[in-house]
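Hey, I'm writing a tutorial for new members on how sequence and structure tokens pair up, and I'd like a real worked example in the thread rather than a made-up one. If someone can provide the structure for the chain below, I'll link this post from the tutorial.
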Amino acid sequence: MTIDRNEFFRQATLSLFSSLDIDKALGRFLGYIQQFIPADGLVLGMYDPEHNVGRMLAGIYPDHVKKPAPTITIPPELWDYLKQHWEAEAETSFINDMNLEDPEIIAATNLIWPNAASGIHMDLELEKHRLGVLMFFTGRKHQYSDVHVELISLLHDPMAAAVSNLLKHQEIVRLHQLLEDDNEFLSQQLMEMSGNTIIGADFGLSHVIEMVRQVAPMTSPVFLMGETGVGKEVIANAIHNASPRKGKPLIKVNCGAIPESLIDSELFGHEKGAFTGAVSMKRGLFERAHTGTIFLDEIGELPLAAQVRLLRVLQEKEIERVGGTGPISVDVRIVSATHRNLEQMVRENTFREDLWFRLNVFPIHIPPLRQRPEDIPALVSYFMERKSKELKIQRIPALDPVKVLQLQNYHWPGNVRELENVLERMLITGTFPDMDMFNDPPVKFSRDDSPPEQQVDTVSKLTLEQLDREYIERVLHSVEGKIEGVDGAAQWLGLHPSTLRARMKKLGIAFGRKKAVN
């Protein structure tokens, strides 16, 4: 049969690059090649001399031949043989009776195609760099000739290009998987750094957590209000992680930390050449948050011009890059937060009223630490353990109840963040904070802003038993003597009701609501 070599090269190359799916492409390639060359299947492989392993890049196998694993462990007795062949000059050759070959050739072939009788082998290289090998196999003997080798040799360059592309694609996939893994790890690290554990979820923040549960499954904007340091970012994390958008981007923006001249570019991106220094296109934070959540902290710091563009995002669900010529649709859930009084800012015309109404769909007020002193013991325990690990302190110090009560009586203007800093400073210095900071009037153990009905006496001279009695009596007074059940004293103190009653009996504290509150 006369073969037009140009047409053979053209059709074989077209079939080889007919699909981005390498298995489909090789299937079509083999189907065309089988019109001219006997072959039951083909293999693209490579040898890694550094690690002495073989890699199956791709292959087409008949049903009766077991396909090897992607990575093939090379026996030590073949290392020298394969390394010498890999480093030798590239060649194309054929074997017509595998049983007559050297034992090393038979052993190496059996790793790839057991019981093969005949085969063609073509080394592939690009710019003098060895890429791999193309092999055709059949279970019948005496199937190949120099004519077949000549035809296969015509396809060296397109096959080398295909293998090069395949290796690059596999590297891109590997790097993408590494990037996803790194992103997941870094996201977890950031969550831990910013605060992923909500201390007080069952006590002082229980109403906040209930509101989080209600709104998290929705797409409605959420507005977080609270003093600096109360943990607004922690609540934003909780909303995102409890939503269907969990696993999607959570982009955090401190609106007060971006210079006014750059805020549009940071939030909405810019096109190349939009302004001096815009040497390339840049995606804004809203684009990066697409399908996820964006947390706009200190929203009250946004300038009026940026407020207008943010209003468009809320209304139209689209943004426009600086210097852009058209809108870009974005699917973003907005969680905003501030410690400022936005209603007052609206009255002063420093914050847009229409934007305020759009953001304030579901407001959540996070109470300051002074309104939930019942959470302080748990916060102390959490921060002591966390900071000890960060500072590599082997033994975690424990605070006695007197010092914990002193921490509860302080008004904490810096809230949870201030408490965290105080405890870290204590771990560094090895001493409890200066007593002068606790000279302010003590705070009533309360869940709201109501004025204290009684104050705790100075505790510096109390015995541990007196302190224990005082603490339990304060809790009983706050819950109107209720011991068991939801919001009972046992729940607040983290004790079993029978344990609490036994302790009350030992301390001489009367049972019953009327006795407890009188």
